[in-house]
Predict the structure.
Amino acid sequence: MNTNLLKLLYILFLFSLTGCAASTVNKVEQLGSTQLGPQEIFDISNLNTLRLISSDFDAHVYFSEDGSMSASSVFNENFDYGSWDITSDSKLCLKFSVWYYGDSNCYSIYKDPEKDQYLFFTKNGALAYTATVSPGNSQRMKIKTKKDKKPVYVRETFVRGEQRQKTSPKETAPPAAALEIAPQITTATREEVKSTVKSMAQNCPGCNLEQADLRQAYLVGANLKGANLRGADLSRANLRRAHLEGADLSGATLLSTNLPGANLKNSDLTGCDLTGSNLIQADFTGATMKGSILDNTLKEGTRGL
């Protein structure tokens, strides 16, 4: 039996497993199941291994207490890492480093009323995964410690065993000297200009954005085909799946920029600094890369480099 046939049979087997479960939130609620709350989600995930199965996915995922994840595909033995958290409206959010383009996806979870497993549903109410739980790191996967200190939702609350207090920061007035040097109207105008440029860049094919300050701009799926971005600063901008075909990015700064799945075909990246950027599955076919810096970049599935 050849490898392709084995893969096909395996996929059909997974499909049969998921097909037996209630396929929508409405159906599972009709069977008497209710959505798990934040504490229940925490109890089944934290320091446990979940096997997540769908028609085309089968992997073990270990949930570390610090919010990091370790994952191993059952079928092809691929590994990935990521992070997890729980929202206040009772959803488990998973963000893999490579799988699913590194996107963050959140799921509501229900106990399967017919089997000893859990059901993960998307925001549209469709079944995403069936899941079984095993205690601890049952697959003995390598654990990557989470390095960032970004704010979490409610997972940290359960780890500490205390209620998270919501406090609003105290507003402090700027020194009078600062007001005299830089009046509020001037600062506000600068911020408005930055905001306008970032908003315009969402859909701006062929635009002249030379030297633009687009740091940390949210440009997911943006259309910047043929745009002039010479010398622009796009550090830490989110350009996931952005359309940058034929764009001029010569001399641009893209430090730790998010570019998974971006289309950079025939673009000019001469002297561009992409240090620390996420280039997973980005397409650089035909791009000019002379003098560009690609240190510490993620390149899984990247084309044209």
Helices lie at 3-19, 25-30, 38-45, 155-160, 176-181, 184-200. Residues 14-19, 162-189 have pLDDT under 50 and may be disordered.
